[in-house]
Amino acid sequence: DIVRKMPSGVIRFDEYEPLKLNLMCEDITYSIMGINSEEYPVLPELSRGESFEISEPLLKSVIGQTLYAVATIDTKPVLMGSKFEIKNNELNVISVDGIRIAIRKESLLHEDFDFVVPAKTLSELLRLLSDDESKIATVSVDRNQGIFSIDKYTVFSRLLEGDFFDYTKIIGMPSNIEAVVNVRELMECVDRTLLLLNDKIKSPVDFTFSDNTLRVFCETAIGKLDQKIKCDYSGEEFRISFNSRYILDALKNTYCDKVKFLFVQNTALKIVPLEGDSFTIYCKP
């Protein structure tokens, strides 16, 4: 925090007395107390048992497309992280918060194993990972510790333990209604509903599908929004309601121009790309 507040330029560190440090830049001097280095936690000695390599942009993508759906309430601590699951030469990264499930899938040649990384660690990794395709990250697991080697950085993290949510049951559920929507248009529309909401005033946003049209409606004590946008839908009129922030989070992390909305037995919304299955997002009404 001190360095962030300093002007751009060279910062000089000077230990003028034992455990007393001056930080100087131009005409600014901070004096702070230090801590004996012997009190610093010893880094764990790990053997890097299970490990795999993945490009930094790809790791950044799989984390970014799932992190938003991690649970923030510790009723089940293991859900406060994302599960990395390698099975049948495929990497799945899964986040669950009880309302949403975000799944990102990529091919990866490796033996089957899995682990759960805390959300805080994943947030730090996002800051370190680059978009340079030539850079490779190494992910290693030894007992209950994870090691992430990224460029000149090595991040150690305790992994979360416990029974993770069995997302495979939901994946197998068939969908009975399908629509194709423009991501940017719908994001802008849903974002407008937030002007009618605050911490005290909450209301779901209604989606009504009919004749290649999606009607988005939200009404609160502040006012109401009623907008129609085009979509690809030819079934009977269908109406369902969602938390606008949850839908907005999901749309922001699709990284697509258009997506499919699949409705699973009228009990959940499933968002997938037009082609392939690189990501899947579930959201309860």
Describe the structure.
- The protein contains six helices and 19 strands.
- β13 and β14 form a beta hairpin.
- It has three domains: 38 residues, no CATH class; 121 residues, DNA Polymerase III, Chain A, domain 2; 111 residues, Roll (DNA Polymerase III, Chain A, domain 2).
- The protein starts with a helix and ends with a strand.
- The protein is of the alpha+beta class.
- The model has no long low-confidence stretch (mean pLDDT 92).
- It is found in: Cytoplasm.
- One of its GO terms (biological process) is DNA strand elongation involved in DNA replication.
Instruction: Give the overall form.
Output: globular
Average pLDDT for all residues: 92
By DSSP, the count of extended strands is: 19
The succession of helices and strands, N to C, reads HEEEEHEEEEHEEEHEHEEEEHEEE
Give the total of domains.
3
Q: What is the CATH class name of the largest domain?
A: Alpha Beta
Structural class: alpha+beta
As for the CATH topology of the largest domain, it is DNA Polymerase III, Chain A, domain 2
Distance between the termini: 41 Å
User: Which strands sit side by side, in order, in the main sheet?
Assistant: 8-5-6-7-19-18-17-12-15-14-13-16
Question: Which key phrases capture this entry?
Answer:
single chain; 285 residues; alpha+beta; DNA Polymerase III, Chain A, domain 2; 12-stranded antiparallel sheet; 6 helices; 16% helix; DNA_polIII_beta; nucleotidyltransferase; DNA_polIII_beta_C
